[in-house]
TrEMBL record:
Keywords: Manganese, Metal-binding, Mitochondrion, Oxidoreductase. Residues 97-177 form the Manganese/iron superoxide dismutase N-terminal domain. Its EC number is 1.15.1.1. It comes from the Eukaryota. Its cofactor is Mn(2+). The keyword Translocase does not apply. GO terms for cellular component: mitochondrial matrix. Homotetramer. The lineage of its organism: Eukaryota, Viridiplantae, Streptophyta, Embryophyta, Tracheophyta. This is superoxide dismutase.
Length: 298
């Protein structure tokens, strides 16, 4: 009936199922759609898109749930199925939940740039809270749509954006870091290195720009190095709170995201955010950024 576009991240979303149907079964669906699901899942959460559709025919939803279940392995998705009895008919309905991804290194592995205490709290407490609240909001959304409660659906959008954005952003952030002994801080070579020189003049100029914009960001948020696929150039962007990069443009691909929330540095750097930004470059994983760039560059 009505497609509720809740939130979309990254390169644009392609809906792979009908937005409308001639007859409506009493059921609802939350779903994720993007053209290269396998690529996304095997690569990162950097290209994650969400749509919420309401009242799609039951036979269509069954096929979609089957598709998503097959595609969701390995990305922190967990399928949660509920069996509801409606009259004498049992209807199966399901929605996707998310789980906290493991870090690819130990909590203390980024010291002295980022302390183990910060990493542990950041991952186990902050990121976990986004995941927990995101799943809670999705479940409430699922129920609100089932009840046809339009006001409740709209009310939940901010919680989905904030907590879903927190989950997406932090999932990228962990991959943007690597210990010094595991290529941490090694500048990019190849095509990304050339692109940085072309777009910013030099790596030093890029670092200076990101540090300046990150330090100037008021309150909490993120500073990004992104590929603009439409303009075919690299750009530096900032987003407030937990807004994902897609909120600045559907053609932006995040190569590097730096968390400038106080929880990312305060225990070690107190209120001196510029020192945190200065030191984080020692553990930046340019290999990961290069891989994303080479895969996504036109
Ligand atoms: Fe954070």
């Amino acid at each position: 009936m009505i497609a509720q576009g809740i939130w979309a991240h990254d390169l644009g979303t392609r809906v792979v199922f009908p937005r409308t149907a001639p007859r409506f079964a009493p059921t609802i669906y939350i779903l994720y759609a993007r053209s290269h699901l396998t690529q996304v899942f095997s690569h990162s959460l950097s290209a994650l898109s969400f749509l919420v559709l309401t009242q799609v025919q039951q036979h269509t939803s069954m096929a979609l749930r089957s598709l998503v279940a097959r595609k969701s392995l390995g990305l922190g998705f967990q399928s949660k199925a509920k069996i509801l009895a409606v009259g004498s008919t049992a209807h199966s309905r399901g929605f996707q939940t998310f789980s906290l991804p493991d870090l690819p290194y130990d909590y203390g592995a980024l010291e002295p740039a980022i302390s183990g205490e910060i990493m542990q709290l950041h991952h186990q407490k902050h990121h976990q809270t986004y995941v927990t609240n995101y799943n809670k909001a999705l479940e409430q959304l699922h129920d609100a749509i089932a009840k046809g409660d339009a006001a409740a659906v709209v009310k939940l959008q901010s919680a989905i954006k904030f907590n879903g954005g927190g989950h997406v952003n932090h999932s990228i952030f962990w991959k943007n870091l690597t210990p010094v002994g595991v290529r941490g801080g090694e500048p990019p070579h190849g095509s990304l290195g050339w692109a940085i020189d072309t777009n910013f003049g030099s790596m030093e100029a890029l670092v200076q720009k990101i540090n300046a914009e990150g330090a100037a960001l008021q309150g909490s948020g993120w500073v990004w190095l992104a590929l603009d696929k439409e303009l075919k150039k690299l750009v530096v962007e900032t987003t407030a709170n937990q807004d994902p990069l897609v909120t600045k443009g559907p053609t932006l691909v995040p190569l590097l995201g730096i968390d400038v929330w106080e929880h990312a540095y305060y225990l070690q750097y107190k209120n001196v955010r510029p020192d945190y930004l200065k030191n984080i470059w020692k553990v930046i994983n340019w290999k990961y950024a290069s891989e994303v760039y080479e895969k996504e560059s036109p």
